[in-house]
Amino acid sequence: LPAGTLSPAQLASLTHISTIGCSLSAAATLCTLLLCCFSSTPCPPPSCRQRLRDNTTRIHMHLLAALLLLNCSFLLSMPLATGAEGLCQVTAALLHASLLCALAWMAAEAFHLLLLLVKVYNIYIQHYLLKLCLFAWGLPTLAVVAAFVFKGDIYGYHTISTSEGYRNTTIVPSARCWLTSPPAHYTTLCYAGLILLFNMLVLGRVAMILRRIQRQKGQVRKDWATVLGLTCLLGTTWGLAFFRFGIFLIPQVYLFTILNSLQG
User: Fold this and answer.
1) Which residue in 158, 230, 165 sits closest to 201, CA to CA?
2) Over the stretch 211-224, which tens digit does the pLDDT of each residue have?
3) pLDDT at residue 244 in the model
4) Distance CA 131, CA 239 (A)
5) Residue 28 half-sphere exposure, CB side, CA atoms within 13 Å?
6) I need a surface site. Which of 32, 53, 147, 261 has the fewest CB within 10 A?
7) How many CB atoms lie within 10 A of CB 104?
8) 100 C-beta neighbours (distance < 10 Å), count
9) pLDDT (tens digit, 9 = 90+) per residue, 168-210?
10) What is the pLDDT of residues 40-56, one digit of tens each?
11) Cβ–Cβ contacts within 10 Å for residue 223, how many?
12) Which of 126-130, 153-157, 203-207 has the lowest mean pLDDT?
């Protein structure tokens, strides 16, 4: 956000909302992961399409793990901003990596959905889940590690200035462990924008398929409830970050905070 956009009261309320939302999401994702780990795992079925469906749950679990890491690192980024600089830089790098991984797993969800619903022929991709892990875990982590090693000063203390012209520390701590470099910030935005564009295209294609099925079966409510669920699963609510202008700025910030802090 531009400096001075938020008042101290707005900064305080947004901080409380994001803290509560991320805490609830972290608890929910942790419970879901534990439930999945302790439940019995069926043997993989033989057909290509059934094998794709069997991977669906595993991809969901990877996305939940990335969201859990994102929520936990975000919650740590505020209290650790008052500590040592090196620890804050590590926390900021962890937060950055978890954000990139979460977005990458949302793209993996979209790609998997594309294979399940759009492709008409059976497709077998060798080491499918491993390749998705390399894309969604490996590439973002490698990028963040390289940035941290070769240019570690892009991570550190990020202070939010309020509209009253001073840096508020009495109502709510304004320091975070996050990116301190504008080029790194805009690069992250471009990365998120490309992923969200791909996910929106997939979601639009799925909506067209469901509309065609709806005409045949008349299951309007069920189908559009599915689209609403996929909207959250594919992370399209993160696209609100690109509508920060004019009179929509403050409502958009609140809407973005509420929706995305509760995504888990």
Assistant:
1) 230
2) 777 776 655 555 56
3) 73
4) 26
5) 14
6) 53
7) 24
8) 23
9) 444 455 688 999 999 999 999 999 999 999 999 998 888 887 7
10) 555 444 454 555 557 88
11) 19
12) 203-207
C-alpha 93/C-alpha 28 separation (Å) is 24
Total number of residues shown for the chain: 264
254 close to 17: Cβ distance less than 8 angstroms: yes
pTM of the model: 0.89
**Could you tell me if 166 and 11 are in contact, meaning their C-beta atoms sit under 8 angstroms apart?**
no
Residue closest to 173 by CA, chosen among 71, 230, 88, 253: 88
235 torsion bin: left (phi>0), alpha (psi -120 to 50), beta (else): left
End-to-end CA distance of the chain: 24
Instruction: Retrieve residue 188's tokens.
Output: 């992250």
In contact, 258 and 21? CB cutoff 8 Å: yes
Sorted by sequence, the CB contacts under 8 Å of residue 191 that are 6+ apart come out as 100, 103
The owner of tokens 């790098």 is: 93
Residue 103 corresponds to which tokens in the numbers above? 């977005």
Q: Cα–Cα distance between 200 and 239 in angstroms, integer?
A: 9
